[in-house]
């Protein structure tokens, strides 16, 4: 996977698997600007706190909050990951909890992708224990066909097919997070 940072290749290889371009960076940025504007309108004067889920959401979070022009704060939580697998283990454990105090605060949970919805359900249950003033969820990607949990998603960047994706913060066995665009596994039928 060697390419100049300014290039957006149509095909990339990661851990010997072939991925094809699904959502170019410009399309991501356009949608993120729209979501940022909606948040600016809704939270003006409320100083919301963005809570990103590590590691996958770090690039989305960075681009999203640069489109937020109102006062806001941020923190991160880290849950267990897929490891080097392409399917969910179905187990959620917490590796890093919240540092910020969120009681009485307006919380916006920032996720890279909602797949089964298990991670989001877990996070929302944890948040509720801290009695925030409100909790909303923004996810860059959603796989509706894979989602088993009935979780609240207030802003969805893109609904995508139920296939493994890579790039823009999302990894395959820790590789590929640095790709500027979203790529999808190119399964040979
Ligand atoms: P869920 O708990 O909704 O099944 O999964 C949420 C987490 O699984 C995401 O935060 C992400 O880390 C990981 N995940 C789900 N689908 C994909 C995918 O297609 N590609 C990658 N790289 N990670 C995924």
What order do the helices and strands come in, and which of them pair?
Layout: E1 11-14, E2 17-23, H1 25-43, E3 49-54, H2 58-65, E4 73-79, E5 94-96, E6 106-114, H3 118-129, E7 134-142, E8 155-159, E9 165-166, E10 182-185
Parallel strand pairs: 3-4, 3-6, 6-7, 7-8
Antiparallel strand pairs: 1-2, 2-10, 4-5, 9-10
This protein binds guanosine-5'-monophosphate.
The site of guanosine-5'-monophosphate has 21 residues, from strand 6, helix 3 and strand 9.
Description:
This protein is α/β, with parallel strands linked by helices. It has one domain (25-80, 92-181): Rossmann fold, CATH 3.40.50.2020. It contains 3 helices and 10 strands; from the N terminus they run ββαβαβββαββββ. It has helices at residues 25-43, 58-65, 118-129; strands at 11-14, 17-23, 49-54, 73-79, 94-96, 106-114, 134-142, 155-159, 165-166, 182-185. The strands form 2 sheets. A 6-stranded mixed β-sheet has the order 5-4-3-6-7-8, sandwiched between helices. Strands 1-2-10-9 form a 4-stranded antiparallel β-sheet. α1 (25-43) packs across α2.
Q: Can you describe this structure in just a few lines?
A:
This protein is α/β, with parallel strands linked by helices.
CATH topology: Rossmann fold
| Oligomer classification | single chain
Strand order of the largest sheet: 5-4-3-6-7-8
| SSE succession | EEHEHEEEHEEEE
List ligands, each type once.
Answer: guanosine-5'-monophosphate
- Give the averaged pLDDT, no decimals: 91
Estimated structural class: alpha/beta
